[in-house]
Specification:
Mean pLDDT: 92
Helix content: 25-40%
Number of domains: 2
Oligomer: single chain
Strand content: 5-15%
Largest sheet: 4 strands, parallel
Structural class: alpha/beta
């Protein structure tokens, strides 16, 4: 998106359009791409219980954006945030930092649900959703010097093992290995929920079954709707959250093996399995992705090493 187009897309944030003004509380969601989907669900329309403003994802915010963020925080009643570390990318964009700056503005808006911080700002923390149950081989590897691999921005532990010359992982994982990876996801999410005091999500992911996620970090609508409902309940506005009638976080759909569904006790949802990718609506063969990634790894061997170290536990579970 070019710079003028981007500023128009986030018009209220950049002051190109006025923030909607009425008696409803103003809610802002701070975080990654999941944050925008939550915003759409909790308040993207005149009939919603809150007003919202589309905000750039945290990884796109620059120093020049801080005055615009502060201007928005001067109006906010409810701040919904994923856990963001303090000093993120060298900027004061951490959850605590943003919440503190919102409170310092001296907001006098309504305190929703009897809670809220200084100045009437209420903070609701939501977790970053990562769920490997449906995609046990799929991992995310941060490699700032190398960027992202071609075709899809995800890594496959089987492909990483091949690139490293390590013992190969089974193309179809054992049922016990699938459940072990799922259990790791459960444990990691619950640990993050407790550490950050965030709303719970594990039950939403488990309940959604074969439709829980499109990729390890792109939850399906059912999960997002459930989380949006909990956000509104947390601020004392238990309105019914409706499915938007379109698939959110729809850019990439990763393969789902029928054997994985069987291992998770989701055999009756086998029709949700598919062997290939769907990337921006275009089918993509998994073998094509693997070949492209192997060529890329040959040029970026450090990514292979970093990925296998970072995800050694999952790789060990899949090798068992």
């Amino acid at each position: 998106m070019d710079v003028p187009g981007r500023r128009l897309h986030y018009g209220e944030f950049y002051g190109l359009r006025e923030v909607p003004q009425d008696s409803r509380p103003l809610l802002v969601v701070h975080g990654n791409c999941q944050a925008e989907s939550l915003r759409v669900l909790v308040g993207d329309g005149p009939g919603a219980p809150v007003r919202t403003v589309r905000v750039p994802p945290v990884h796109e915010l620059e120093a020049d954006d801080l005055p615009h963020l502060d201007a928005l925080l001067a109006q906010v009643d409810v701040l919904v945030s994923q856990p963001v570390a303090g000093g993120y990318r060298g900027l004061p964009l951490g959850t605590a930092e943003v919440a503190s700056r919102a409170a310092r503005t001296g907001i006098t808006g309504a305190v929703i649900g009897g809670g809220g911080g200084r100045g009437g700002v209420q903070l609701v923390v939501v977790p970053v959703l990562r769920w490997a149950a449906l995609h046990p081989f799929q991992v995310i590897v941060r490699s700032p010097g190398a960027g992202e691999p071609p075709l899809v921005p995800y890594h496959d532990l089987r492909t990483l093992a091949l690139a490293a010359g390590a013992p190969p992982l089974r193309e179809v994982p054992a049922a016990a290995a699938v459940r072990a990876v799922r259990d790791r996801s459960v444990a990691e999410l619950r640990t993050r929920e407790q550490r950050h005091g965030s709303l719970p999500v594990v039950d939403l992911l488990a309940r959604a079954g074969a439709h829980a996620t499109h990729t390890v970090n792109h939850p399906g609508n059912e999960v997002l709707v459930g989380l949006a409902q909990r956000v509104l309940e947390a601020v004392g506005l238990p309105a019914e959250v409706a499915d938007p009638g379109r698939t959110l976080l729809d850019s990439v759909h990763a393969p789902v093996l029928p054997e994985v569904l069987d291992a998770l006790g989701l055999g009756d949802e086998r029709d949700a399995s598919h062997p290939g990718w769907l990337v921006h609506g275009r089918p993509l063969d998994d073998a094509e992705v693997r070949e492209a990634h192997l060529r890329w790894y040959a040029e970026h061997p450090g990514v292979v090493e970093a990925g296998l170290i970072r995800h050694a536990g999952a790789a060990a579970a899949l090798a068992a």
